[in-house]
Specification:
Layout lengths: L1 E5 L5 E6 L6 H12 L4 E7 L4 E6 L5 H23 L8 E2 L12 E2 L6 H9 L14 H7 L10 H11 L12 H7 L4 H15 L3 H31 L7 E6 L2 E6 L8 E4 L8 E13 L1 H4 L5 E2 L18 E2 L4 E13 L5 H11 L6 H30 L4 H15 L3 H19 L8 H6 L4 E5 H5 L5 E7 L2 E6 L2 E4 L2 E3 L5 H12 L4 E5 L2 E5 L2 H12 L4 H7 L2 E5 L7 E7 L11 E7 L1 H6 L1 E6 L2 E4 L2 H16 L3 E10 L14 H4 L3 E10 L6 H10 L3 E5 L4 H11 L9 E3 L8 H8 L4 E3 L3 H13 L4 E5 L5 H6 L2 E4 L10
Parallel strand pairs: 14-28, 14-31, 24-27, 28-30, 29-30, 31-32
Antiparallel strand pairs: 1-2, 2-4, 3-4, 5-6, 7-8, 7-9, 9-13, 10-11, 10-12, 10-13, 15-16, 15-27, 16-17, 17-18, 19-20, 21-22, 22-23, 23-26, 24-25, 26-27
Helix pairs in contact: 1-2, 6-8, 7-8, 7-12, 8-13, 11-12, 16-17, 24-25
Length: about 800
Amino acid sequence: MVRTVHDTGKGRVRFKVEGLYRSDSVRSNIEAALRGHNGISDFSISVLTGKVLVFFNSDNTVETIRAVIKEAAEAHSNFRLTAEQAPPTAPRQKLSAAPENGSGSPSTVEPRKSRRQLRRSVIHAEEQQEEPWHQRGIAEVITAKDASPSAGLSNNAASERLKHFGPNLLPESVPRSGISIFFDQFKSLPVALLGVAAGVSIATGGLADALVIAGVVVINGVIGYTTETQAEKTIHSLKSLVRPSALCLREGTLSTLPAEDIVPGDILVLRPGSYVGADARLIETHHLSIDESALTGESMPVVKDIKAIDMDDVPLADRTNMVYMGTLVTGGQGVAVVVATGRYTEIGKIQTLVGEARPPETPMERQLELMGTQLVFISGAVCGLVFLIGLLRGYGFLTMLKSSIALAVAAVPEGLPMVATTTLALGIRTMKKHNVLIRHLDAVETLGSVQTICLDKTGTITLNRMTVVTVFAGSKRMRVSEGRFSSAGRDLNPYEHDELLRLIHISCLCNESEVAREGGEYVVSGSATENALIHVALSGGVDVPALREKFPLLKVRHRSDNCNIMVTLHEMPPTSSAGNDANMIAVKGSPQEVLSLCAWHMKDGQKLPLTEDDRQAIMIENEKMAGDALRVLGFAYAYNDGEIFVLDRHDICGAAVESVALVWLGLSGMMDPVRNGVRELIGRYHAAGIDTVMITGDQGPTAYAIGKELDLSMGRQLEILDSTHLGNIEPEVLKALSEKVHVFARVSPANKLQIVQALQASGRVVAMTGDGINDGPALKAADIGIAMGHTGTDVAR
């Protein structure tokens, strides 16, 4: 069950554990066992590879540690087996991960409620206290929520709060039923007129006429119903069925709970890859970074801290001491106290905005309404006049009534609804061949009337994945595209350029992303920035797992507030020319700080002294890359005897490192790249007379660089507006601004809705594209809402 993979390093061993792969509960059991074992200095557990790396002192043997891991893994298997063998009538149990102190047992909870009961609980839950929690100190928040950072809530207290505040679920929008879709097909005025005419025909004995008219109306309804129902089923099939869970502290035990059971006052434990189950105020962080792109539109993960923010009107993306429901931990660890659940979370507020937003009538609906109204008045007047003239000329009352009804029916274009519906249904079928699902028939017609397209940036225009696009090494700037390096139009092979290959190697070693091989592909898990470095190495032909096996990791020093660099210490291969006792130091971080610690640099495969001219050239290149809205990192390395890591980790930028002559390797610039073909697509929009506006939660410089690359202004001056205080602008002013601005930056979900409505107020037919939770209200309010398919969120769809 536990197999030794590698134990050649002194005081270091790696195991392969059966059952660890993608099992957080097994990982928790092993963590608890290793943490409580004397003589183990450090360890690393990967659920992606199913391996455990352990550093230990001489008092322990490999077999002793293997036995500890085996016992922890088997304890989980036995526990799971007992639960699976319980009789069908046994009450349902909630399984908890092993507590850190090794104690605790699974607790019996109430059976799960039905969806209808849960929805009712959400609707009737008590109101929660809404406060600017980011402005409050840690002690104040803990007191207000009656929380215990060391033990968490008791099970009884959590149950009581769950009854009061309801489950931690968002109010679900009621899906369109088949009946509502069917009756929606008969809401246009021409169809209503045909229905009235059929009813009057039956009343006056014209059964044949009534059947023909009713047949046209029913066929029209069936075509529309069939088409829209198929689209609804397909869209519903895209809905994520995963029920998220979160690590919570309850009665001193670390438990994996369904997100719906989290209550205000719970203590959340945040780890890389974990889902943030509720809005919470951070009380402890260790290099914690959160991907909030779905909520805020920020493409870069946000680095978090615990300091109170003593400012009003702080944008969501700048609340660095808060974590929000629906976001993802990309790096580091943290502990937070829950301050809001359900509809009182930021996602819940967006859901409320979606519910309040009302989609406008389509141009076809407005035209049919106008035509129908005109038909009613004109045909009514003509038929009334004919009826009166007939009576005056002596014709019978019933005869003239039938003649007037026949004239009214003839005035209504019976074929128009059916022709329109059939044409739109054919349009939907054509669009489906291009992988476009259309939810409402009228949307096909509105597509042809669009005048302005509002484009969400992160995940729609861009891939929402950090990617290395530029490398500067050996005084040469190289472009990186699809894993290929090029300079001055020539392709470069990293294995023929020593300084480039060394930079790639250091970027993989000074890196905490997990790399596992599944089948014929690599799976990379970690922060967006470090993942980007791994991906470019893999694309360049570097076997990252083999490289890490060759240079085993001994120690890590993370960056800190006063030292923005990361340092790792690696064991050298036995065949290395650096000496038997030498270790290698790998450094990455702020280019200015890394460069300040370097005395040498690599150029044309040679190690040369770093002159002031060299430093100036490097800093000029760094400024150029930063000016292109790239995130820039500097890389360096050195050999030493290992003494550097004897000091406290906070002294990393002190004399200890400075005493080692680091060798400068180069710069790496990364960004969230534009999707292939988007620039050409923008050009086609402009050629069709459609204006383009980009709306993003990113910072101004990043948004401006993307806007320039896409030529959103059609060659004119690109106008950009920081939307942080957009809520304070008068509607008329915003209406005027919306006609001139090409890029809106730092936008909140409410701002997106404002912008779309301002464009509509200026008389434009507006389409909105988006994939995130924050795009939901604007997508619903736009004349055409366009949601991304498999990469989008359920809220957007």
